[in-house]
Amino acid sequence: MALNYALLFSGSVIVLLGYIYWSTARYMVHQTDATIEAEIDGLAEGYRSGGLPRLSQLILERVSRKPAGMGVYLLTDQQLKPLAGNLDGWPRVPLSPDGWLNFSLENGSMDKPHKARGRSYLLRGGFYLLVGRDTFELDKTRQLIDHTLSWGLLVTVGLALLGGVMMSKTMLKRIDVINQTSREIISGDLSRRIPSIGSGDEIDDLVENLNQMLNQIEVLMDDVKRVSDNIAHDLRTPLARLRNRLETLANKAEVNSVEHENARLALEEADSLLVTFNALLRIARIESANQSEYFEVIDLKTLVLDVAELYEPLIEERGQRLELKLSDSPTVHGDRNLLFQAIANFLDNACKYTPREGLITILLEARNESEKIIVADSGPGIPESEREKVFRRFYRMETSRSTQGNGLGLSLAMAIVKQHRGSVELQDNNPGLRVVLSFKTPPAH
Amino acid sequence: MHILNIEDDVETAAYIQKGLTESGHKVDHAKDGKEGLFMAQEFNYDVLIVDRMLPGMEGLSVIKELRAAGDNTPALILSALGEVDDRVTGLRSGGDDYLVKPFAFPELLARLEALVRRTDEDAVDTVLKIAGLEMNLLSRTVKRDNQPLDLQPREFRLLEYLMRHTGQVVTRTMLLENVWDYHFDPQTNVIDVHISRLRGKIDKGFEQPLLHTVRGAGYCIRKPT
């Protein structure tokens, strides 16, 4: 980026300076040419009115009037033999069709030949007139301009490059900060803000606007959470009363009567509603909770073995197989009941989708300061496009609508893992789903 | 059982009162913390039901005061706050069990009965017996009609818990908390499979079943009538 800017800038400077140079040079040449033409006009006029003697006199006058060497005059006869003027002989250069010619001047007072430009003019009677100008001073001026402009260009391009590099470096640094913060926010820490350097420039404005946008988003998210929390909380109490009344009704009805059965079924519905509400509230609380003061060092191997032991009969009953590959005693800092819940939910899910004879594997690995619990099944798996969505509340894939569950199990598990500063990754197990939970190894005590 | 119910919500209090009375228990009601503390100190209850958020004096403070005064009447904390921290705080304040609102009445009843029974559980038994079923806690063996049964360690603990609460209903969450020692909500009824396995070992091939499923509540081991 810096290079592009420097190139663009240098290019503009070159074009600008080039134009200045070109128009100055052109002006100077033009000026010389105009003077020469005017003089020729004057001399030709003299010749017309006074013939050769008048012309010779005029030339003499002019030669003596001009500063030495500036004006060049030569009048010759048909054989180019000099008759008057300050040139020793006709310059040995080819005559151009328009009469203009560039030649060099030599005489004893110069250390080197001077350049000159002049115009030849054929007078009536076959006399040749050459009027010119010594362009030495002009060339010197042009050289000076050349020098000045070249150096100016060099310095400007150098400064442009340096400035470009420096500007883009600071720019990139600030953009890097914005990117870094954005990534942290995307990964779930909505409380992060982009630091502003207070310079009041456009980037600072951008940072300010982004931060305000983030504030707004955070407020909205909190609102949404609070609203759903309140709904769950406010509906829970009447729902609980409804449940209690249904229970009373069921108890009053004669056992095995239709009324009893209906009341029982209604009670079951109410219970499952309450379970859903409680799960929602639980997720909300865990999500808003920080690491608890009751967190302790948990031995993951024991925990996984306990979960596996609890589910083993269920897995056997379903004709599935469970395989454990547990490395020795990795630990995490956390709450054993919540972690048990999370692992159980993932294992529960694996059981639900693994076919008969299918294999479910739980692996425990300690690697690079992180502990990994991997629950792999041999079910249909989750297509890549759905993997993000399955952690949403109430989200159920089309294919799993028929299976039991409220669509909150994975949300709850995810909330727990996040509360423990862990991460969940869903991978393909070819076939099946591979859930990888990663937790940071607690620092050694 | 003689129960003191400290609860400020009239509806919940009435519901508990009605259910417990119908189950044959005697219930007194206190509508705030101070009254509850006074009644608990004045009368001799078998068990206390203490709501956490009470006007006047917080539920946990009531229990703390009682414990400080040397009163060890078992107390069940009833609360709308169900998260782990709340549970731990509740149990550390001297509560003996913790139940989150809303609750199913059988769960409350089962837990109250278990709490009262716990007081006599402290007596160290070496052998538990129901009908022909006999569990030796020292040799860790189980026999039915003198026929040895082969139980896995977890099945042994499960049966022990059920036998220690003979005649009482124990709920699934009670089993998870006491036999597996984890407090969590299973997505599937994993406990049912464990129970049916255990049932296969202790009841299969015997005329009288001992392990019963109580619909809408849990399980119960009881003598054949």
The CA-CA distance between the termini of chain A, in Å, is: 49 Å
Radius of gyration over C-alpha positions of chain B, nearest whole angstrom: 19 Å
Basic shape of chain B: elongated
Most extensive protein-chain contact, per-chain counts: A-B, 47 and 28 residues
**What does the largest sheet of chain A look like?**
5 strands, antiparallel
Low-confidence stretches of chain A: none
**Cα distance spanning the termini of chain B:** 23 Å
Structural class of chain B: alpha/beta
Number of strands of chain B: 12
**Uncertain regions spanning at least 5 consecutive residues of chain B:** none
List keywords for this structure.
heterodimer, A: 445 residues, alpha+beta, five-stranded antiparallel β-sheet, five-stranded mixed β-sheet, 12 strands, 55% helix, B: 225 residues, alpha/beta, five-stranded parallel β-sheet, four-stranded antiparallel β-sheet, 8 helices, 41% helix, elongated
Reconstruct the topology from this structure.
The complex is a heterodimer of chains A (445) and B (225).
Chain A: H1 2-65, E1 71-76, E2 82-85, E3 100-105, E4 114-122, E5 128-134, H2 136-186, H3 202-252, H4 258-288, E6 296-299, H5 300-317, E7 321-326, E8 331-334, H6 336-353, E9 359-367, E10 370-376, H7 409-419, E11 423-428, E12 433-440
Parallel strand pairs in A: 7-9
Antiparallel strand pairs in A: 1-2, 1-5, 3-4, 4-5, 6-8, 9-10, 10-12, 11-12
Chain B: E1 2-6, H1 10-22, E2 26-30, H2 33-42, E3 47-51, H3 59-68, E4 75-79, H4 84-92, E5 97-100, H5 105-121, E6 127-130, E7 133-136, E8 141-144, E9 147-149, H6 153-164, E10 170-171, H7 172-180, H8 190-202, E11 211-214, E12 218-221
Parallel strand pairs in B: 1-2, 1-3, 3-4, 4-5
Antiparallel strand pairs in B: 6-7, 7-8, 8-9, 10-12, 11-12
Helix pairs in contact in B: 2-3, 6-7
